[in-house]
Amino acid sequence: MIGADAIIKCLEAENIEVVFGYPGMAIAPFFNSIRDSSIRPILVRSEQNAAHAASGHARINGKAAVCVVTSGPGATNVITGIATAFADSIPLVCITGQVNSELIGSDVFQEADITGAVESFVKYSYLVKDANDIPRIFKEAFFIANTGRRGPVVIDIPVDVQLATVKNYSYPAEITMRTYKPTVKGHAVQIKKVTGELARAKRPIICVGGGIHLSGAASELRDFAERYQVPVVSTMMGIGALPTRHPLYFGMVGNNGKNYANRALDESDLLIMVGARLADRAVNRPEHITKGKILIHIDVDTAEIGKNAGPTIPLVGDAKQIFHQLRELECELTIKHDDWVTTLENYRETMKRTRTPNPAYVDPAVFIRLLADKMTDDSIYVADVGQNQIWSCTYYIVRGGRFLTSGGMGTMGYALPAAMGAKVAAPDRQVVAVCGDGGFQMSMMELATICQHDIPVKIIVFKNNSLGLVREYQHHAYDDRYSCVDLDGSPDLCQIAAAYGLTFLRLHDMNEAEMMIDSFLANDKSVLMECMIDPLDLVKER
Amino acid sequence: MKRIYSVFVENRPGVLCKVTGLFSRRDFNIDSLAVGETEDPSISCMTIVSSGDIRTVEQIEKQLNKKLDIIKVKTFDELSCVSRELILVKVRIKKDRDNRREIMEICELLSAEIVDMSKNQMMIQMCDTTERISLLIKMLQSISIVEVARTGTLALSKCTD
Ligand SMILES: Cc1ncc(C[n+]2csc(CCOP(=O)(O)OP(=O)(O)O)c2C)c(N)n1
């Protein structure tokens, strides 16, 4: 057995069924060995999208997905995808080919120091020097990616190591790493403090982030919120942790969030943050958040607690575990929260923003709600970046499915490849990607991938012929002095769809919206649907 | 505020770079750095002196603990540890040799040692706290320093019963 065979064996041992990748000389042994295995390689059209596709796959499958690329330009192309996954704590294992070990450091053809380059966006990285280390390194890599605060791990493997003989291959059953022991269980004393505070609180609120999804704690969260009647808000990454229409859910917080969600946060006297970073996008001036309230911060990563705002009660551990531990401690509330919930319901009713849509175009707000209502209960909605993302966050209704987006990095072009990965992970679920015409053009080469590998993804492009969110920013901040936001020269999407043999739909205004959404969703193949959006529309009217 | 971190790491290539990279990436200061093997050759100890507000010095410890090549981090303030630096200073002896006495007096006062000498130069060694080492440099500056080599701070927590 050679190194490349050992890699495949390791992936099989980790129950990996699919890899997203792009070949090259330095990873040729791997792509040769994969032919003898049942692992399905999916050839993408650009390496960045291999990582995004793996990210979509991992988020739906609940464990690390794999992308495989070659050395040099292949490896550097994948960096944005790795950084995007890192910012949202998505577990990935990214295998990169490398030049011959003896040549490392001599700047030969297609050599790039990838482990050096990605150091600040990976949870860990390896440069494999001995083929006999492959089983241990893969075992560790998957363990690292899938535990604690999830994240991407890079394994860089020189081509000669892929070709070297592996003696006595065996996949280790156990991990022995003296440097890595993630905390899973919450500290009993801290757990007690949480119930103590909850019992006393008049206006408690839970703010959830992406950590709920990563730890698979949605039902535990729901159980906790319902049992104690605690209202819930979420960050962008936390959307869908509680169904949008759950009576205790009060929307997304932050500068692009719901004003009633922010008000709820402000007026609470006990804030329980779970699996959220308290970052600038979610919380305006995090340092002020502790004023007049008790802050409990629950996170699997100790370093997130107290990084942006001082918590009153830090609680390190996995969200699911901690909800279970909280469940075991009976908590007698001294105060009912009914009045508080009623107040928030009142805010939710009266503080709704009104829009003034232009009837000559598709109104994204109404369109997204309509689409959400017609999508299946367990469907997956993937939002890109820009105005379309903010509209998606604001108007999409999650019932039992998932809402995916690039929250931490805000990487344009994420939606299409991530939707592709999600669809591969859940072929029976409806998957819809919604992007702007700018973001779509950053990844539209992947239309070929979905055709080649028969991955029926539904794609919606909000066409406003501009980089809408930047245009909106220039409108507010530069008094309409527009610079480089016009997308003239973009292709006719009808012809693009035809070129790939995809069904195409174009929606001009809301008149035919219902009918068109029905036929869009009814089609069991990939469909490209273009919605004409008013270029002057704003996510925020000031 | 000042903090001294004893960072025990896997003794492998690239680890020093990862640790210092963390400091630059997060805009943490490194006031001084010293690295060496411990009694266990598979483990190195990096002694890092840094400073910042309370949130920063806490973050440094937490971020260090997150790095997967780091086995253990011990953090001290200056009062709870014994810290030392080593310095070697080469000074020029004047043609008429009338500064030799002065150099020797400074060494005597600060318990520094003369470790090498030629007709025109003298090398002084001193192992002491950062403050006293700085004092030595200040005193010798008036005499004409040729060159200086100085380690970072080394520190261990004070002995316990
Ligand atoms: C890769 C990348 N480059 C640049 C940006 C900055 N940016 C944020 S939103 C945006 C405009 C997006 O335009 P479009 O995809 O057409 O969506 P719209 O805002 O019009 O809905 C840009 C350029 C980004 N987020 N990602």
Question: How would you characterize the overall build of this protein?
Answer:
- The complex is a heterodimer of chains A (542) and B (161).
- The radius of gyration of chain A is 24 Å and the shape is globular.
- Chain A contains 22 helices and 18 strands.
- The longest helix of chain A has 15 residues, at 47-61.
- The relative contact order of chain A is 0.10.
- Chain A is 37% helix and 16% strand.
- By secondary structure, chain A is an alpha/beta fold.
- The termini of chain A are far apart.
- With 161 residues, chain B is an alpha+beta fold.
- Chain B has two domains: 2-79, ACT domain (Alpha-Beta Plaits), CATH 3.30.70; 83-157, ACT-like. Chain A, domain 2 (Alpha-Beta Plaits), CATH 3.30.70.1150.
- In chain B, the strands form two sheets. In chain B, strands 5, 6, 7, 8 and 9 form a five-stranded antiparallel sheet that branches. A four-stranded antiparallel sheet of chain B has the order 2-3-1-4, with helices on one face.
- Chain B is elongated.
- The mean pLDDT of chain B is 93.
- Classes of the chains: A alpha/beta (542), B alpha+beta (161).
- Chain A binds chain B through residues 115-116, 119-120, 123-124, 144, 177-180, 301-303, 306-307, 310, and chain B through 10, 14, 17-18, 21, 25, 55, 58-59, 62-63, 65-71.
- Thiamine diphosphate (TPP) is lined by residues 385-388, 410-412, 436-439, 462, 464, 466-470 of chain A.
- The site of thiamine diphosphate has 18 residues of chain A, from helix 16, helix 18 and helix 20.
How far apart, in Å, are the first and last alpha carbons of chain A? 66 Å
Got a strand count of chain A?
Answer: 18
What is the CATH superfamily label of the largest domain in chain A?
Thiamin diphosphate (ThDP)-binding fold, Pyr/PP domains
Spans of chain B of at least 5 consecutive residues whose pLDDT stays below 50 are none
Distance between the termini of chain B: 28 Å
Parts with pLDDT < 50 across at least 5 consecutive residues of chain A: none
Largest sheet: spatial strand order of chain A? 2-1-3-4-6-5
Largest sheet of chain A: 6 strands, parallel
Q: Could you tell me the mean pLDDT of chain B? A: 93
